[in-house]
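job 3f2a | input accepted
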Amino acid sequence: MFTDADSAIAAARDRLIALSHSIHAEPELAFEEFRSVEKTMEPLREHGFHIDKGVADLPTAFTAEYGHGDLVVGICAEYDALPEIGHACGHNIIAASAVGAALGLAAVADACGITVKLLGTPAEESGGGKVLMLERGVFDDCAMAMMIHPGPEDIAGAHSLALADLSVVFHGRESHASAAPEYGRNALDALTVAQVALGLLRQHLLPGQQLHGIVGSGGVAPNIVPGHAELLYYLRAVNSADLEDLMRRASACFEAGALATGCTHEIRKLAPTYTELTPDSALLCAYREQIIELGREPIAPELEAQRPLGSTDMGNVTNVIPGIHPIIGIDAGGAVTHQPAFAAAAVNTSADVAVIDGATALARTAIQLAGDQLHRDRLSERVSQRQFQRQEDIR
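job 3f2a | predicted structure (395 res):
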C-alpha cells in the first residue's frame, strides 16, 4: 500500500509545492488566515474530500474528510505566520505536507479501512487553535493525530516546552513629570521593577524553565508620568507542573513591581496554555523507520531532549490523542526558526523536498499502524474511552 500512497503524493508533487509557495507569498497572522485556508482546501476539494468550514466556531479552522473506515487518521495543517517576518516557522511546508499526506492516504483509504481527516488548525503561533478545537470536540473521533514541522535538522521524537502567554498590565496615575511628579504613580517604574525581579529570578530557575518578553506599552510622552504600562511575556517549562511553579514565582515578581511603586496590576492569559509534546511511541517508531527509509538521518534518540523546539499547541493534542510532531530538516544556511533567513529558506529546493518527504513519511506511518491489528485495536480503544468520557462530562 506504500506504493499507491507514494504514487498519489508524487502525482501531486507540483501542486503541493505550488501550495507551499503560495501560502508563503501571502503570510497571514493568527485567526486571519482566510486566503491560506482557501488555498489549503482547494486540492482537497478537487479530490473529493468532504469539507466543513468554520469548525469549533473558528472562522479559519476546517476539517476535510475522505473515506468511511472505522479508524480515523488525523493530519494537522498549520498556516499562520509571524508578525513582520512571515513564515519564519515554515508553516507553509506544514500545510502542504499535510495536504500531501491526506491525498496519499485517500488513495488507500478503502484498502486500509481508514477515514482520512485533515484538520486545518489556525493560530499556532499565538492563540492555540488546536487547544480550542480539542476542547470543542473536533479531534474526538481521531485515532491518531500527526503533522511535521520544518527545522534545521531532522528530529523524529521532537520535544517541546509547556507555555503560558501572558499580558501583565500595570495601572498607575498620570501627572506632570516635572511640575507635579509627586502626584503620579509610575506604571512604567512598576514594569521596570518587575523586569529586574524577573532577571534576578533567572539564576534560580529549574532546568528548562524560561522567561522572555517585551514591553507592549510604556507611556505616551516624556513629560507625562505613565499611568499605564504593559508587559507581554512567555513563560516556558519542560512540563506543566514546572510551568505552574514558574507561574507562581513570576507572579510574585509582577506583584513586587506594583507594590514597590504604589500601582496595581492584572495578569491575563492571552491564549490557552500549551502543554509539552508527548509523542506516541508506536507512531514515533514507525515514523522514524519511514523517514530513514526515505534517505533522511534524524538525530539519535538520546540527543532529542537536548533540542527543544520551543512550544506548540500540538502538545495539548498529544497529551490526549496518540500523536507525533517530528521535525523535518531543510537547508536554512545556519538559520533557525523565527529568523528572516529561515523564512527565505522555507521555499528553497530543500523545503520543497521536505514537503514531499514529510507527506510520504506521515502517510506511510499511518498505513503501517492501520495494518497492525494490535495497534489498531489500541488506537480504537483510546477513541472509545475519550468519547465515553466526553459523554460523562456532558452529563
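job 3f2a | The chain is about 45% helix and 20% strand.
job 3f2a | closed
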